[in-house]
Amino acid sequence: MLVALMQTWIKYASRKAPAGRTHGLRRDDALFWIDWLVTAALALGVSLVTASMQGKPVGTFQVGVALSVLVLGLAVMPKVVQEMCYDSTGDLKGWSHIVSANAAGLVILLSSVAAGVKVYG
Fold this sequence. Notes:
It contains four helices and no strands. By secondary structure, it is mainly alpha-helical. Helix 2 runs antiparallel to helix 3 (60-85) and helix 3 runs antiparallel to helix 4. The longest helix is centred in the middle third of the chain and has 26 residues, at 60-85. The radius of gyration is 17 Å and the shape is elongated.
């Protein structure tokens, strides 16, 4: 969450405000699910490979979670977000859609963290 706040601050501080506005932030800047999914997939993949290289047993459950994160997060979720959160003009439908996409991304991130802890626990 701290990373999301820092990203928002940097976007706010680095952009010029368009005429008539006090800041240059847009609703799209509140979408963090992409960062969280990439972090989840990479962290889980690296932790499973590292554990395997250290001779730690990697169970079927952890491999299943890793594959689920990759498939759901990186293949299915982008299409779902495209269909459900954007209108026909390519604009976000509203804040509830942003919150929903971020919540789904956070669930996937937390699932991958839990699976990684299980490997090292």
